[in-house]
């Protein structure tokens, strides 16, 4: 792989609730913990905690708005995550192709002996 995989980033994305929060923010553009908790089966406090994890990973950024904070997806960081995922996919494709080649070679050798 050309770039190191960011474990904090993938740990943040690995949680289904946080992925749902990202989906909501991408669909709506912005959201507050209150507006997002209205769309999820979790409390506002839980949403705030999940948004904090996403914020620390750089996937969202917050802007103060009165007593709340408005969250938006950081598109550059999300694009970075997509690039990393593509790199991981390519690496696994190469590994699986190598395994396939080895298995085919073993099968050919077995057929030649029979």
Description:
- The model has no long low-confidence stretch (mean pLDDT 91).
- The longest helix has 39 residues, at 75-113.
- 68% of the residues lie in helices and 11% in strands.
- By secondary structure, the protein is mostly helical.
- The radius of gyration is 21 Å and the shape is elongated.
- The chain has 5 helices and 2 strands.
- It has a two-stranded antiparallel ribbon.
Can you give me a brief rundown of this structure?
This protein is 68% helix and 11% strand.
Sketch the major β-sheet: 2 strands, antiparallel
Strand order within the widest beta sheet: 1-2
Give the N-to-C terminal Cα separation. 41 Å
Radius of gyration in whole Å, from Cα?
21 Å
Strand content: 5-15%
- Global outline: elongated
Pairing-aware structural class of the strands and helices?
A: mainly alpha
Average pLDDT metric: 91
Helical residue percent band: 55-70%
Order of helices and strands: HHHHEEH
Which ranges are low-confidence, i.e. pLDDT below 50, for 5 or more consecutive residues?
none
What's the total helix number? 5
Number of strands: 2
